[in-house]
Amino acid sequence: MIKRITIIGSGNAATQLGLAWHTANIEVVQILSRNKKSGQNLANKLNSQFIQNPSDLEKVDLIVICVNDDNISEIAKLLPNANIVHTSGNTSINILNNKKSYGVIYPVQSLNKEMEVDFRNIPICIEANSPILEKKLLNLSKQISNNVIVLNSSKRKHLHLAAVIASNFSNYCYSISKNILDNENINFDLLNPLIQYTAQKNLNKNPLNNQTGPAKRGDKNTIKEHLSLLIDKNHKKIYKLLSQNILKEHEH
Question: Which domains are seen in the chain, by residue range?
């Protein structure tokens, strides 16, 4: 049973997971972070001890590494032998294989420490190098989420890829839309119902079957006119590439 946790990092994932566990009455004993300001701030929120030196780590049931993917291996080398997990969607469990007991806790959500998150509805994917740790991670994750699954590193990487396309890329498209409207002094809020409706309908049906718009209809004159309205060359390339793929997908 995991009752005492230490978190490495003080960014978005560290903050939101820490708050979720704290709310679930799981003790976050220490926050280890290079950033003194954000680390101390998070420690204060969680009634934890803030430390900056791995030699000051106390013995706990689980150490959770919440740092950028490129830094996971470097941080892991500094940690004692204990139950250790990282929270990356794209990083293999094997990056921790120099430890005795290790795994992954990956929340499938874009996390921002400034925005309140309800973890009960967020899927959490776990992986462990032993059945014993897997059981512990399942139990821990189920205390904050109603949707916990076991997923190996290969499948998790594909899930992360899909998540990036669905969330990060669509968000960038929103930013392009806002740029177009800002240039014409049109309020971006006018798109809110459309954005919400598009997301909602894709929760229950195949997105391919939900496709609408000029490319789906094969309306090449509208596509040509839209391209003429776009000022930014990169935005033109994105519009053209997506339109070409939609045209091909729907056999126009």
Answer: 4-151 (3.40.50.720), 156-249 (1.10.1040.20)
Residues pairing with 101 in the sheet: 83
- Beta-carbon contacts of 73 under 8 Å, excluding residues fewer than 6 positions away, are 95
> Phi and psi of 29, rounded to 5°?
-70, -45
30 within 8 A of 51, measured Cβ to Cβ = yes
Mean pLDDT for 66-91 is: 95
Q: Please, what is the angle between helix 233-249 and helix 220-229, to 10°?
A: 170
Could you report the per-residue pLDDT of 89-125, keeping only the tens digit for each? 999 999 999 999 999 999 999 999 888 889 999 999 9
What is the average pLDDT across 242-248? 95
CA distances, 19 to each of 100, 166, 195 (Å):
28, 26, 29
